[in-house]
Design goal:
Elements (H helix, E strand, L loop, with lengths): L15 E3 L2 E3 L3 E3 L14 H9 L6 E8 L16 H16 L3 E7 L17 E2 L19 E2 L5 H17 L4 E6 L4 H6 L14 H19 L4 E5 L13 H13 L6 E5 L4 E3 L2 E3 L5 H6 L3 E5 L4 H10 L4 E4 L1 H5 L3 H7 L33
Parallel strand pairs: 3-14, 4-5, 5-8, 6-7, 8-9, 9-10, 10-13, 13-14
Antiparallel strand pairs: 1-2, 11-12
Helix pairs in contact: 1-2, 3-5, 5-6
The structure holds flavin mononucleotide.
């Protein structure tokens, strides 16, 4: 078929030791929300989806998963705050482990990216601020006006993350990724374009990051640093969350993570692709964060096989997370190994509710293509 198999040294297909976990390759499944967890309960079809994408020694990060009943911003996203949710995750985790993969749960609180009707008793969503999040063209309804958390309420939310982390381990997950990206609650505190507080959780960089740093500390105390990663997106502006000094913010957070000996990984999303010299390019602006962080460094955002191999070979990243390509190619690491063509993703079914279509029906490489 004219495939060009990758050389195994210093590429996506090279093994890697991440703390206590022996990875057989560097192709990570990025967290991908799919709106198929009816009533916030993970469903049996998720076991099919994730086990399709699990490979021996591969790292799979599960979709954003709510830490409490105030954490939800969209219908049909999974949670991990009730015993029923923990039970529902167990067979999914078992299916991934049966394939020999390592499975992390992404812990999520949306903050103000929500509406009153998704909140308990119709209350207002909570945030760092009482300023409403601007509209998102992909979401039909407008977000509701949030309620600014009082400083004395914040330890309660930190505790929600801690309890959810404990639940994730009870469900069998190997560890958790704290969702500190994409304009959700932790970024609503971290970024100066949203945080308008004048207490110890607002103002200086240290104050704005205090909540996120407390969440990290609580989850590390609960699970041990070797089971905890964090995702950050200092350069993105999703959900109206911008910062005047994204590099300073990301470096500060990477330093805070490094204060926990053995903190497992720092996972950072690249800025949006930039068009130059006739093509879309990944900006590759994450090096300061890699330098500031001691553990495993994961990059994401617009990567293909060639760019992934390049950043691993250059030492810019240890691992590369793939979102849309993994969504559409259950056997992505194998396709990369063989240099095989990729299925195209169908954006129209990213967020639909069908348990099969656009979810578990993307084809595997046919066996005869291996020859
Ligand atoms: C359908 C879809 C759902 C996503 N859900 C999440 C999520 O739950 N948590 C998260 O941190 N990022 C989420 N993302 C972002 C991806 O993890 C990834 O960073 C992004 O798609 C860029 O990588 P890619 O170019 O490889 O797709 C989502 C992206 C897509 C397309």
């Amino acid at each position: 078929m004219g495939y060009q198999p990758a050389k195994k040294e210093a590429t996506l297909l090279a093994p890697y030791t991440m703390g206590p976990f022996e990875l057989s390759h560097r192709v990570v499944h990025a967290p991908l929300t799919r709106f198929r967890s009816f009533g916030n309960l993970p469903q049996p079809h998720a076991a099919v989806y994730y086990s399709q994408r699990a490979s021996k020694g591969g790292l799979v990060i599960a979709e954003a998963t709510g830490v409490s009943d105030t954490a939800q911003g969209y219908p049909h996203t999974p949670g991990i705050w009730t015993p029923e949710q923990v039970e529902a995750w167990k067979p999914i985790v078992d299916a991934v482990h049966a394939k020999g993969a390592i499975f992390f749960c992404q812990l999520w609180h949306v903050g103000r990216v929500s509406t009153n009707d998704l909140q308990p008793n119709g209350q207002a969503p909570i945030s760092s601020t009482d300023v409403r999040c601007g509209p998102n063209p992909e979401v039909p309804s407008e977000y509701s006006k949030p309620r600014r958390l009082r400083a004395e309420e914040i330890p309660g939310i930190v505790d929600d993350f801690r309890r959810a982390a404990r639940n994730a381990i009870a469900a069998g997950f190997d560890g958790v990724e704290i969702h500190g990206a994409h304009g959700y609650i932790l970024e609503q505190f971290m970024k100066d374009g949203v945080n308008d507080r004048d207490d110890e959780y607002g103002g200086s960089l240290e104050n704005r990051c205090r909540f996120a740093v407390e969440v990290v500390g609580a989850v590390v105390a609960e699970l041990g640093a070797h089971r905890v990663g964090m995702r950050l997106s200092p350069f993105l502006d999703y959900n109206d969350a911008v910062d005047s000094d994204p590099t300073g913010l990301g470096v500060y957070m990477a330093q805070q993570l490094s204060k926990h000996p053995g903190f497992l990984y720092c996972h950072v999303v690249e800025p949006r692709m930039a068009f130059s010299e006739g093509r879309w390019n990944i900006p590759h602006r994450l090096l300061p964060f890699r330098k500031a962080f001691n553990g495993t460094f994961i990059v994401a955002g617009g990567y293909d096989r060639e760019e992934g191999n390049k950043v691993v070979a250059d030492g810019y990243a240890d691992l590369v997370a793939y979102g849309r390509h993994f969504l559409a190619n259950p056997d992505l690491p194998r396709r990369f190994e063989l240099g095989a063509p990729l299925n195209k993703y169908d954006r129209s079914t990213f967020y639909t509710q069908d348990p099969v279509v656009g979810y578990t029906d993307y084809p595997f490489l046919d066996d005869h293509d291996d020859e």
